Amino acid sequence: MNNLTPRQREILKIVNQKGDISIRELLQLMDISQATAYREIQELSQMKLVNKISGGISRMSSSSQSCVQCGRENNPRTAFLIDQIDGERLVACCSHCGLMALAKRTNISTAMTTDFFYGTMLSASQAWYVLDSSINLCCRPSTLSFSNPDEAKQFVLGFGGVVLNFMEAQQKINEMMAHNNVIHQI
Ligand SMILES: [Zn+2]
Ligand SMILES: [Zn+2]
């Protein structure tokens, strides 16, 4: 999986929060040269994490496709994006389906998940997952993503569930789905 540089992550965060941003605004927000901005944007756009628009970039829309795993309509609030090596982008409705879809595939270049608190995208392999809490936004067992493990732990104190890293979460969710016929809906 590709790891984003801290600067690319910062750009993604900004564009995902604002929806779109011009190069000029980006230069003002971040202390970088125009050449650097263009290079980072080029890479992000090649990874299909942002759309290039005239004079700037915009957030990738992830709401138009249905979930690659369960077929339900995708919700940008919980989206899980999987980019394959061949350039095709798969969208899962939530981390639950995203982690299951990932486990079945070997041709993955990047996977991104949505932070439950902030709505920002982060690398799926670096996220923390809360499984089986009482908050059911999408598929069950509920799987929510967090960029900050401390926040995930705080969340569990209030809403139950267990905090797992990427590998643990992927293993656990596939185990749970294999062992019982969990209903794949609310
Ligand atoms: Zn799904
Ligand atoms: Zn789901």
Characterize this entry briefly:
The protein is of the alpha+beta class and 186 residues long.
Radius of gyration from the CA trace? 17 Å
Ligands bound to this protein structure? zinc ion
User: How many β strands by DSSP?
Assistant: 10
| Shape designation | globular
Mean pLDDT: 89
Describe the sheet with the most strands.
Answer: 4 strands, antiparallel
Instruction: Tell me the distance between the termini.
Output: 31 Å
The tally of domains stands at 2
| DSSP helix fraction | 25-40%
Enumerate the strands of the largest sheet in spatial order, edge to edge or round the barrel: 5-4-6-7
Residue runs with pLDDT of under 50 for 5 or more positions? none
Residue share in β-strands:
15-25%
Number of helices: 6
- Which quaternary structure do these chains form? single chain
Structure classification: alpha+beta
What does this structure look like?
The chain has 186 residues and is α+β, with helices and mostly antiparallel strands. The protein folds into two domains: 6-59, Arc Repressor Mutant, subunit A (Orthogonal Bundle), CATH 1.10.10; 80-179, no CATH class. Helix content is 36%, strand content 22%. The chain contains six helices and ten strands. It has helices spanning 6-18, 23-29, 34-46, 95-103, 149-159, 166-179, and strands spanning 20-22, 50-53, 56-59, 80-84, 89-92, 108-114, 121-123, 128-131, 143-146, 162-164. Strands 5-4-6-7 form a four-stranded antiparallel sheet. A three-stranded antiparallel sheet has the order 1-3-2. The chain has a three-stranded antiparallel sheet with strand order 9-8-10. A hairpin with a 2-residue loop joins β2 and β3. The longest helix is centred in the C-terminal third of the chain and has 14 residues, at 166-179. The radius of gyration is 17 Å and the shape is globular. The chain starts with 5 loop residues before the first helix and ends in a 7-residue tail after the last helix. The mean pLDDT is 89. The structure holds zinc ion (2 copies). The site of one zinc ion has 8 residues, from loops.
